[in-house]
Design goal:
Layout lengths: L2 E6 L7 H14 L4 E5 L5 H5 L9 H6 L9 E2 L5 E3 L15 H13 L7 E5 L6 H9 L2 E6 L3 H16 L9 E7 L28 H8 L3 H4 L4 H18 L3
Parallel strand pairs: 1-5, 1-6, 2-4, 2-5, 6-7
Antiparallel strand pairs: 3-4
Helix pairs in contact: 1-9, 4-5
This protein binds adenosine-5'-diphosphate (ADP) and magnesium ion.
Magnesium ion binds next to α1.
């Protein structure tokens, strides 16, 4: 069974892309067949991973249920990757319903010869139709926040949207918790989060190794393998895999 995990916060700069990438690397290290999906129109992850001018992208799989297997890129970091491009913003014209987008994507992946254990979705930093679709198609949500107030508010907004809207589409996705990232001590704003946001620990520390890793095109897990950020992400991945497996 393939599990779909969305890394979410509709505020920008909260650490979603860094976390989604780190989880793909650690899940692959733990032997999980993992697909990392760029669901954003800025396609920053696609840029970071050095994929240029991809022909088929996440947009095509959201738009049609016919799967273009050639869209999947193998990475040296041992996970598979589905790149994005700016066309994904066309979905915000709402010509396709949330359910159609989610079903197209799942049907496309179901055509794949050997299924993935995990699909990790790097989601947009906007409360858009595309954002909603990524939330709808995920079975598991992981919130990611810095201590900035706008970022904490993004988690609260996400939980409100999930409660208010997604319920009407079927079983609610499971909230894995909220991961504090870029942590450097004072985090009093995190106290604004209720207990149902399930604050996770350890927090991911702030470290310049993340920027250095971005410049190298690799995850911080590979670029600074035993640094504090890599250790914290591996611990998170282990916890998430345990938590997810206990849900079946
Ligand atoms: N643990 C960290 N320490 C230092 N910088 C970080 C850390 N995590 C992310 N960053 C930096 O913060 C910026 C935003 O991170 P990103 O993952 O792209 O956020 P989002 O996808 O939510 O917009 C990036 O420039 C990244 O290098
Ligand atoms: Mg991002």
């Amino acid at each position: 069974m393939t599990r779909f995990l969305a890394v979410v916060n509709p505020a920008g700069g909260t650490g979603k892309t860094t976390t989604a990438h780190a989880l793909a690397v650690s899940f692959a290290e733990y032997g999980q067949r993992t697909l990392l999906v760029d669901c954003t129109s800025s396609a920053y992850l696609t840029f970071l991973l050095g994929v240029e001018n991809p022909r088929d992208t996440t947009f095509d799989l959201f738009q049609n249920s016919s799967f273009a297997e050639s869209a999947i890129v193998s990475t040296p970091e041992r996970f598979s990757f589905l790149p994005s491009d700016s066309r994904i913003s066309y979905l915000d014209q709402r010509e396709k319903s949330l359910t159609e987008i989610a079903n197209n994507f799942k049907k496309s992946l179901a055509n794949f010869d050997s299924p993935f254990d995990f699909v990790i979705l790097d989601t947009p930093s906007t409360l858009s139709h595309t954002w909603m679709a990524t939330l709808l198609l995920a079975d598991f949500h992981l919130g990611v926040t810095t201590a900035a107030l706008g970022s904490v508010r993004g988690i609260i907004q996400t939980q409100e949207v999930v409660d208010a809207l997604l319920k009407s589409y079927g079983p609610s996705p499971y909230w894995l918790g909220t991961l504090p990232t870029q942590s450097s001590g004072d985090a009093s704003t995190l106290e604004l989060l209720g207990s149902d946001s399930k604050l996770l620990s350890p927090a991911i520390p702030r470290s310049s190794s993340v920027l250095r890793a971005e410049l190298s095109g690799k995850s911080v897990l590979n670029n600074d393998n035993s640094g504090s950020v890599a250790v914290a992400y591996r611990e998170l991945a282990y916890f998430l895999l345990e938590d997810i497996s206990s849900k079946n």
